Structure prediction request, 149 residues.
Amino acid sequence: MKLIGVYLSPYVRRVAAALISRGLPYEHQPVNGYKEYEAASRYNPVGKVPSLVLDDGEILIDSSAPETDTKRWRAQIHGGLRALDEAAREGGPLQAKPLDAAAITAVVAVELLALLHPYIELLPAFPALAALAAEQRDAAPFAQTRPTR
Prediction:
């Protein structure tokens, strides 16, 4: 068996303690679901830990991470992007020149979302926010600090 997740997570630690208390050997793979989302999502579609890979390859995931959580998180993301899209419209607070901290944060957030979740096509639904991010794409503050994968 292989336990995926860091012991800092009480959920991972709970599974590890249960395995140890029952004398069940396991290999520990310390993947941080927040910092290593891609690695964690190989075992759990929502990238949460713990995941327990059984010897036959079956993967057990924490029951607190079902599809309903994913829907809720997506709704929260959409709500935030909707608010940013409103603020990015002509005359909105994100249109201030020079860019203020709010506009910089919005552009960074949009670029991070696109980098980490390229399969989620959110930006077509938020045209003003997408236009702001596109307008700033090659500006020095963003071009010089853009992370690569």
In short: The two ends are 30 Å apart (CA to CA). The longest strand covers residues 2-4.
